[in-house]
Amino acid sequence: MTPRLGTMRLACMFSSILLFGAAGLLLFISLQDPVELTPQQVPGMKFSISTQQHDGHLRIPTERVTRDSTSGSPRGLQLQVPDQPRPHPKAKAAGSPLRLRQRRRRLLIKKMPAAGPIRGINSSETFVQPRPHAMDSRWASLHQSQQERKRVMREACAKYRASSSRRAVTPRHVSRIFVEDRHRVLYCEVPKAGCSNWKRVLMVLAGLASSTADIQHNTVHYGSALKRLDTFDRQGIVHRLSTYTKMLFVREPFERLVSAFRDKFEHPNSYYHPVFGKAILARYRANASGEALRTGSGVQFPEFIQYLLDVHRPVGMDIHWDHVSRLCSPCLIDYDFVGKFESMEDDANFFLHLIHAPGNLTFPRFKDRHSQEARTTSRITHQYFAQLSGLQRQRTYDFYYMDYLMFNYSKPFSDLY
């Protein structure tokens, strides 16, 4: 064998080895799991929201944000997020421990059972602990109250609305939610449960006004200063639902219903009288006068209840007496804070404390409309419901049963079952 021929054979062998090595490298890269290429989540906060779109709907699983069990930080109330831990250069160079953890994670994912509709969540996962210096008996009591309200709400959802967690969040589900970006707050509006004053508070938080007393009723309800969540695009909705503090305030259902009736039908109203009043009088009042049919004024409470309970209503449902479970979808959207109208001052100011609102901002006490008229109380509510038969009271209670159950309100009459 000549030296030149031996050199050529060695060169061919070396080229073959290089080609086989390159092919093996390409095959190895193509088989890598894409999970290994995903960015790491922030420690202590696991986002499992799917931003897939089906038929124009947002697909959001029930378990949207969970927290590290050692952290008391809630979704939305964690104002400072710790920096990502940086891997040690040697560990990064070696690569094998990280790849081993990723392979184990893939095996765990494959073995995990499907998530249930509602998962029990302990208190440390759902609510922020106030700072130690502020943790007096009053804050502790309010904190415990929040835990209990959310527990009752989740249990009711798990028992009666088990399929809600697998439904898609649509713009309709978030159409009553107002957005305040500076303090990262989402507020679901429940009419006749302090919503006017809450929107005033949001406007002050957003820097749109210096005081709640300076904001007129028409500015609150007919202005466009506050954005609704359904005005954002898909990514904007998902981002805010998963990272902002979500809250709603509720009210005893019968009291809220009577408050709405007094406001809309016992006072001049250019919308509710001609739209709802005329239809109600035409359908439920025998021998209604021409004047009543022309103006829609003078609707009586029993006539209003007939409309409410009629499955073939002459006009549709209205937000002022619709169920909270439909307005705010609490079985689909996991609210961080559930306040009550009956304890408004304490609950509202506790919430403002938790989101670090300006110290001089408190929830306003003034009555938004008909300020000379007494607020609707339990006593006034009983006076109105005394005009109804026992069957009508029972059917009205059945109509609002989920609201009574989810928000732990007692039966308003002893003869209700």
From TrEMBL:
Matching entries from InterPro entries are given as: Carb_sulfotrans_8-10 (IPR018011), Sulfotransferase (IPR005331)
What protein name is recorded for this chain?
Carbohydrate sulfotransferase
EC no. given is 2.8.2.-
Localisation per UniProt entry: Golgi apparatus membrane
Q: Does the keyword Transferase apply?
A: yes
| Organism expressing this protein natively | Peromyscus maniculatus bairdii (Prairie deer mouse)
Instruction: Give UniProt keywords alphabetically.
Output: Carbohydrate metabolism, Glycoprotein, Golgi apparatus, Membrane, Signal-anchor, Transferase, Transmembrane, Transmembrane helix
The enzyme class is transferase
List the record's Gene Ontology CC terms alphabetically.
Answer: Golgi membrane
- The question of whether DNA repair is a record keyword is answered with no
UniProt record similarity statement? Belongs to the sulfotransferase 2 family.
The gene name on file is Chst8
Topology with respect to the bilayer? Single-pass type II membrane protein
> Biased composition, Basic and acidic residues: where in the chain?
54-67
GO BP annotations, alphabetical order:
carbohydrate biosynthetic process; hormone biosynthetic process; proteoglycan biosynthetic process; sulfur compound metabolic process
